[in-house]
Design goal:
With 194 residues, the chain is mainly alpha-helical. It is 68% helix and 0% strand. The longest helix has 36 residues.
């Protein structure tokens, strides 16, 4: 398979499975094993059978470090699923300490008897919808980057050099990712106390 087709398949797979769908989370209380199963099904793109994205130990550890609320009588809610998914995405970018800082206000609100509760479900759905809209552009951006890389290399006389094309595509993706991560880290440092 040519790499262009592989990249297109990856972009389509990510568009379908890359951002967990809260509609797939049951609106009932779950035990830990059920929560892990539900999360691993929804986040399957990020793991394998041998190395699942979420384990019982993961959830226990994040709960212990106050990045997730404690279960209510050994049961977890849909909000737990959405918060765990949020932590999962954050953990792929930030250190444990940084995720704790970022989640602290959310956890304080979630556990407060006085504050008006944040609508975790509405927040997650809004962000997911925005990102899903951008994913359509992502596939097109990748296609345009491939065309641009091919033209650049062709102008240098490397028309059939897949290695150089793929290298340039990877480097471009990493540089874009680094720019977004840079902004995210600076926002975290500026607005979330240590």
């Amino acid at each position: 398979m040519r790499y262009e087709s592989f990249v297109k398949e990856l972009a389509e797979k990510y568009a379908e499975q890359g951002i967990a769908n809260p509609d797939n989370f049951p609106n009932i209380e779950l035990y830990l094993d059920q929560m892990v199963g539900c999360l691993n099904k929804e986040l399957a793109i990020y793991g394998s059978e041998k190395n699942p994205p979420v384990t019982k130990a993961t959830i226990s550890n994040y709960t212990k470090h106050k990045m997730l609320p404690k279960p209510v009588g050994k049961k977890y809610t849909k909000a737990h699923l959405e918060l765990m998914t949020t932590v999962f995405y954050l953990k792929n970018c930030f250190s444990m300490e940084q995720v704790q800082r970022l989640m602290a206000p959310i956890m304080e609100n979630y556990e407060s008897a006085w504050d008006e509760k944040l609508d975790v479900d509405a927040m997650y759905r809004n962000l997911r919808e925005h990102l899903k809209e951008e994913q359509g552009d992502f596939s097109e951006e990748l296609k345009q980057q491939i065309v641009s890389n091919k033209k650049f290399l062709s102008d240098l006389g490397y028309e059939t050099d897949d290695y150089s094309e793929i290298f340039m595509l990877i480097l471009g993706l990493v540089m874009k990712s680094n720019a977004e991560r840079f902004v995210a880290e600076k926002l975290l440092e500026e607005y979330f106390e240590k």
